[in-house]
Amino acid sequence: MQPVLKVRNLKTQFFTYSGVVQAVRGIDFDVYPAEAVGIVGESGCGKSVTGLSIMRLITYPPGKIVQGEINLDGIDILNTPEKEMQKIRGGKISMIFQDPMTSLNPALTIGYQMSEMLRLHTNLKNNEIKERVIELLNLVRIKSPEEVYKQYPHQLSGGMRQRVMIAMAISCEPKIIIADEPTTSVDVTIQAQILYLLHDLKERVNSSIILITHNLAVVAGLCSRILVMYAGLVIEEGSDFQIFENPKHPYTWGLLKSVPRIDQEEKEKLSTIAGLPPDLISPPKGCPFSLRCDYAMRICFEQLPPYFEPEKGHRVICWLLDKRAPAATRSKK
Q1: What is the pTM of this model?
Q2: In sequence order, what are the residues at sequence separation of 6 or more whose Cβ sits closer than 8 angstroms to the Cβ of residue 79?
Q3: What is the pLDDT of residues 105-142, one digit of tens each?
């Protein structure tokens, strides 16, 4: 099976008065048809910039994609004229942003905004467009869609606004849907509903999903493959089982230890990762996690490790996987 999206050696930088911020530092990954891929990591690791780079929404100045290749279903995204990109965005690839209130126009009704998307990317007539909008609102389980069609964003709850954004994203049945922290601005109950909705829509619409989040629990129920990002790099990639049950990078170990567990009989204090991420204006020449890593060796500070593949489909940037390194295992406590 051929991937619907190929990302190769992607580098995105921001040119600031303080220096050049190397936000994404050469990442590779593929997304296959009808697959859900999670990108996780703490704030500032480059996951949202990766999503915006794929959409080619990095604004210059200050940001710029300086190197790499993004191939969407045979289309070279980085060398496509902007006029063509406007057809591709929403048509072949769409994005659900973190805060729907800032993504929706407060002066226009929900029906008008959703209809505009269909006018741009389909050949539907006006009466057919309204029917399609109502159908989409039903699909994302919004009650009284005919009423919501006439309403403005401020008249809806946060969860309903996010459902509208999802309906807009799937309206033209794109190949890829990028969901950037889609559950951050809503409460836990609505989070579960939105995640269930995304899972259900993936099966119905047959689109691939890239889910960007800092919450490991969010990707656990939706994604079959997970990329762990740190300091602009994909430091570990694997299946959901490989990442949750057999992780190999100390940073991934730290992330998992910071998540509350319901299978623990005794309440334990959550673990934290000491220190701060490196400054991406002048990133370290070795492993970016070395200053925070309990297992760091001399080589970790001097040389960036290559990708090791402990098993098929599982790749990790870490010198601990070198045959010459001393054995190190994670503590699950």
Answers
A1: 0.92
A2: none
A3: 999 999 999 999 899 888 899 889 999 999 999 988 89
Question: Is 150 buried (19+), middle (13-18) or exposed (0-12) by CB count in 10 A?
Answer: exposed
| Nearest residue to 314 (alpha-carbon basis) of 253, 227, 190, 184 | 227
CB 226: neighbour CB atoms within 10 A? Answer: 25
> Are 292 and 273 a contacting pair, CB within 8 Å?
yes
Interatomic CA distance for residues 113 and 90, integer angstroms: 13
The answer to whether 186 touches 131, Cβ cutoff 8 Å, is no
- Rg value, the chain, Cα: 21
Contact (Cβ atoms closer than 8 angstroms) between residue 162 and residue 185: yes
The verdict on whether omega for the bond into residue 62 sits within 30 degrees of 0, i.e. cis, is yes
CA dist 284 to 97, 170, 278, 279, 318, Å? 31, 41, 7, 8, 15
Contact call for residues 161 and 100 (beta carbons, < 8 A): yes
Domain segments of the chain as ranges: 248-321
Block residue for tokens 């309906």: 167
Rounded CA-CA distance 222/220 in Å is 6
